Q: What sequence folds into this?
């Protein structure tokens, strides 16, 4: 069981908007640690998608955005495209573990 | 260009030992934490542990403490993950990943190795 909770799957039609939630606790997201999101295409390594809650690395389309509030964070994807079909993972730091924690991952079907 | 290059796939028998590697290049190896992440077939990412190659400060997830050893050789810019006695349940893809900023563990991982597939089967 992952420390961060994500829905196992979400789906949406091309052009639609979807959101993926990531729920933590007072020792990680609620403690103020930044949340990061990764996109993992089938058979490939994870790729950083959103860092520090709501920042996009160079080259990531502005269709992807992140937010954080309290003990939760969310990833939003607008204008869904077939190429967005992938697994999405949230990540932060946990003070009780003195290390990283991940969500269980969410499979997006377009 | 920053790169993390991992060693190749391994097929081992239960009880055997194994060490896989992650070689960093294109940056100052000693000043960025490198983490190890397990991904079992069809599952999510699990943090195993993290090392600061500059002084080999190492932290382990409670789930993996005592099960694996993480080390680094800064003279050859390489981090390692090793097992002394593999189990079938260690079958997984293993990734190394570098934090995005010098100093803090609590940062995103913006560079990942390509992954090392470990299969443990009798």
A:
């Amino acid at each position: 069981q992952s420390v961060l909770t994500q829905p196992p799957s979400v789906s949406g039609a091309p052009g639609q908007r979807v959101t993926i939630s990531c729920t933590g606790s007072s020792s990680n997201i609620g403690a103020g640690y930044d949340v990061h999101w990764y996109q993992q295409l089938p058979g490939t390594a994870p790729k950083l998608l959103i860092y520090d809650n709501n920042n996009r690395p160079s080259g990531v389309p502005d269709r992807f955005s992140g937010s954080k509030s309290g003990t939760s964070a969310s990833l939003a994807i607008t204008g869904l495209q077939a190429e967005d079909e992938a697994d999405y993972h949230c990540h932060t730091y946990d003070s009780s573990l003195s290390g990283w924690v991940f969500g269980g991952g969410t499979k997006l079907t377009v | 260009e920053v790169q993390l290059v991992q060693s190749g796939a391994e097929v081992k028998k239960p009880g055997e030992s194994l060490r896989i590697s992650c070689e960093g290049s294109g940056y100052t190896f000693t000043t960025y934490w490198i983490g190890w992440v397990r991904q079992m077939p069809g599952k999510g990412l699990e943090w195993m542990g993290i090392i600061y190659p500059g002084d080999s400060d190492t932290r382990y997830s409670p789930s993996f403490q005592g099960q694996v050893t993480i080390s680094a050789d800064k003279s050859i810019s390489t981090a390692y993950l090793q097992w002394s006695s593999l189990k079938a349940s260690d079958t997984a893809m293993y990734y190394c990943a570098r934090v995005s900023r010098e100093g803090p563990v609590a940062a995103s991982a913006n560079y990942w190795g390509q992954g090392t597939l470990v299969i443990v089967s009798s």
In short: Chain B touches chain A through 26 residues (CB under 8 Å).
